[in-house]
Design a protein that fits this description.
With 246 residues, the chain is mainly α. The protein has eight helices and no strands.
């Protein structure tokens, strides 16, 4: 078996293991650490994501040395779409949750509104774009196909976290995750920078910070509809950009 094929197998195995431990939360999710007004599992979830990301990073450096991770910084201009990515969802969530009656501590704002999403951006982009997308690119030399397949996997991996919600909500959030995954994938293919797309992923998630100031934990109907069409549009834009390059 040649070196590239071995690295692809290793990368997909690492990605699968990372996805399992990240989604299941084993073991840190079940270690409740109450602190001020933070949710008891917040610190555990952050630890889970960081530990799994770090172990995955170390294994990839050892077993898949030819995979491009954080060493490339070829930036493309996504300024306007990044503004839309953050601002439209943020404003729609803020508008939908009004009035914001919560008075969270600074620690809660930092951990649940900012740092948790740093952890999410790091680990999800690592195993989705850094490992799965790169592997598909190596197997089938077609960027659009690799982006689409990775986005589909990315969307489906969000379903376990939506168990118990209404069917229409699960469908909408899965589809918008796929659209968002296409957008992230197009940025990664254009820039070859895992750090850059991870940061943009964090920005997308930071749009949800109004939830920290609200008693609600679900997306209001109007906000969900606006976010859905925004992410689908960004995904279509990403596909057009990559397709034109090919």
């Amino acid at each position: 078996m040649d070196t590239e094929r071995k690295e692809i197998i290793y990368a997909l195995c690492i990605a699968g293991c990372m996805a399992f431990f990240y989604i299941s939360g084993i073991p840190f999710k079940y270690i409740n650490i109450p602190f001020l007004d933070l949710h008891a599992d917040t610190i555990g979830l952050c630890l889970q994501a960081l530990v799994v990301w770090f172990i995955g990073l170390c294994l990839t450096h050892v077993l898949c040395p030819h995979y491009q991770l954080y060493s490339h910084t070829h930036h493309a201009y996504y300024g306007l779409s990044i503004v839309f990515l953050f601002l439209i969802p943020f404003l729609s969530i803020y508008w939908g949750l009004r009035p914001l009656e919560g008075h969270p501590s600074g620690m809660k704002i930092f951990f649940e509104g900012i740092f948790y999403y740093v952890c999410v951006g790091l680990i999800e982009e690592f195993f989705c774009r850094g490992l799965i997308l790169q592997s598909i690119q190596k197997i089938i030399n077609n960027d659009v196909f690799a982006i689409g397949m990775t986005a589909l996997i990315y969307g489906l991996l969000h379903i376990p976290g939506m168990m118990g919600q209404a069917t229409i909500v699960v469908i909408m959030r899965t589809l918008w995750s796929i659209g968002l995954g296409i957008y992230f994938g197009s940025i990664y293919v254009k820039t070859q920078s895992l750090g850059y797309v991870s940061f943009i992923h964090m920005m997308a998630d930071w749009a949800a910070i109004p939830f920290v100031f609200s008693q609600l934990s679900y997306y209001p109907g109007q906000s969900a509809a606006i976010i859905f069409f925004t992410y689908i549009a960004l995904g279509c834009n990403g596909l057009v950009v990559v397709s034109n390059d090919e």
